[in-house]
Amino acid sequence: MTDERSREETTHTDERSREETTHTDERSREEESTHDKTEFRTKLDALIGQPTGGSGKPTVAPDPVNQPMIRHWAHALDDMNPVYLDPEFAAKSRFGGIVSPPVMLQTWTMPAPKLAGIAERGGVPIEMGKNPSAFIEEAGFTGIVATNSEFEIERYPRLGDVISVTQAFEDISDEKETSLGTGHFITWLSTYTDQNGEVLGRQRFRVFRFKAEARADQTSTAS
Fold first, then answer.
1. Tens of pLDDT along 70-88?
2. How many C-beta atoms lie closer than 10 Å to residue 118's C-beta?
3. Beta strand extents in 20-119 (DSSP E only)
4. Structural domain spans, the chain
5. Could you give the 3-state DSSP secondary structure of residue 105?
6. What is the mean pLDDT of the chain?
7. CATH number assigned to the domain covering 58-222
8. Could you tell me which residues come within 8 angstroms of residue 73 by beta carbon, excluding any fewer than 6 positions away?
9. What per-residue confidence (pLDDT) applies to 41?
10. Residue 216: which pLDDT band, with cuts at 50, 70 and 90?
């Protein structure tokens, strides 16, 4: 009987030891995961207010606001507002002359594409400078989809205006679960100014960066 009790006590002790070890391992993993998420959140917060890339200096439009580009835009989008196309009409309008469609702001500041090396850049038409948010993709958030684009117009651009743009991170959400997967909504603010520094408008552009493999796992489980 003594030997049996001894074996039972040893067995119970071993089981408790294994349970304690398992619980300790689970707590360690949870603490490590929490630490990693906190550190990642800190890095995300550090992006807020920082330039989205490159030198951080304003990007200046390659050409001043001009009638030919306005005409191409108007015909392409079938937006035949006479203040964009008819000098006589525009001169009598509240604008006092030809103006550019306000949502053309982004168009004016787009750089000319560089075809050399485009394959090596994965099809990106321009050379990319420093990317301060590269760590997001490195953390597994490789999927990306655009979700919102909002314009806030202060003044319509006039012929001859030379437009510049600065871009900075404005907001990054906490981790969200969606049908695409788990990820973060990232918003950056583009501020457009003329040659005198007057603000013409602002654009908020939002994307969702998500873990693409998470969706693949969900699809596999569902099937």
1. 999 999 999 999 999 999 9
2. 14
3. 59-60
4. 58-222
5. helix
6. 83
7. 3.10.129.10
8. 79, 84, 100, 101, 104, 107
9. 94
10. very low
